[in-house]
Amino acid sequence: MTVSIEEIRESITAIHARLIKFRRDIHSYPELSGEEEKTSAFVAGILEDNDIELRTGVGGYGVVGVINGARPGRTIAFRADMDALPVQDKKSVEYASKVEGVMHACGHDAHTTMLLGTAIVLNSFRERLTGSVKLIFQPSEERAVTGAKFMIEEGALEDPVPSAIVALHCFPEMEVGTVGHRPGIMSASSDRFRIVVKGKSGHASRPHQCVDAVLLASLVVNAIHHIVSRRTDPLHHGVISIGTVQGGMAPNIIADHVEMEGTVRALDPAARKKIHSLIEETIKGVTEGMGGGYELEYWFGTPPVVNSKKVDAFVADSAREILGAHNVIELAEPLMGAEDFAYFAEKVPGTLVRLGTGNRDKGITSHLHNSMFDIDEDALKVGAEILSWTAVKYLSKV
Ligand code: NI
User: Fold this and answer.
1) Which of 302, 317, 348 is the last residue of a domain?
2) Does the annotation mark 141 as catalytic?
3) What stretch of H or E contains 293?
4) Taking ligand 1, which is a single-atom ion, which protein residues have CB atoms under 5 Å away?
5) Which domain CATH number covers 255?
6) Which of 83, 89, 339, 385 is catalytic?
7) Considering 31, 36, 81, 141, which one is annotated as catalytic?
8) pLDDT tens for residues 40-60?
9) Is the pTM of this model over 0.70?
């Protein structure tokens, strides 16, 4: 007999107090990207207590659990990130961070907790499930060197291979009890570059004998800002920002090189590639056209999150059954922030869903990455219910 929505709801409600405790424990002792030793051990401990098969040390402090149903079938995966941020917690609550300058300001404590709740509940029904549930607890989401990539390289998506992957992310701008989903592009890519503009130095009074790298750099900055406004499709959003410019030695010396660093965000994989080639073309044109030269280093970071239409629709349906249709909102716009869930969604059809965690009546309105960030803990229940119900439905469909 398959598991009913009421059974899921009752089981999650029964562990809600425990989930709040889990979340507060993790919230009190946040760990930065790549340092999630205690959080990872906490997660592994709970999976072990529930006799859930697990692997630790996957891509750093990553933990992968597998719940096998009574009969073989397909596999759905859920991913929760575990790391915190270098932010000082300024909340005055007893579960505020006890670690100076480190805080769960992006809600990853809640993501981890919701997945633990999902694991406990689904495991209790495992005799009635067909197929498997894969639980991916990921380290190092907030850092450029991403945990997702390492976990995939170390087999997180193998044995069993999931045919769908789902992640929730706290979204304080939406009220608790609501979710936002979006088929297609959900968040931007994040790439980085470093440019060295090369000229020829000499006395400031004799510019004709030199190539002024400062002037060339100013032209490069200007020209690069024409890429998004004039050379890419206006419907393919992107942002290029140059954050640092360094060069020159003295007021009366023409500089022979200037270094600049910047970042590129794009929502569309094709626009992302195009921006890269246009940056190179622009720098080459400007510098060589004026007698100078250049060096360009370009690092492709996190790709855009592209949600599978099918998986997104499936999760949105489950969420509607849990929350009522009017509380499940299709988001009109993607976000320009990057999320390394993108690496998972490149390999397996997936969706990243925004979970409402705000509550204006209770004054829970702070944005992500803010030192006052908090969630309405009822969201833990909502998230775990959505994930659990999604799994039950997905595995019962043959
Ligand atoms: Ni986050």
Assistant:
1) 302
2) yes
3) strand 293-302
4) 106
5) 3.30.70.360
6) 83
7) 141
8) 999 999 999 999 999 999 999
9) yes
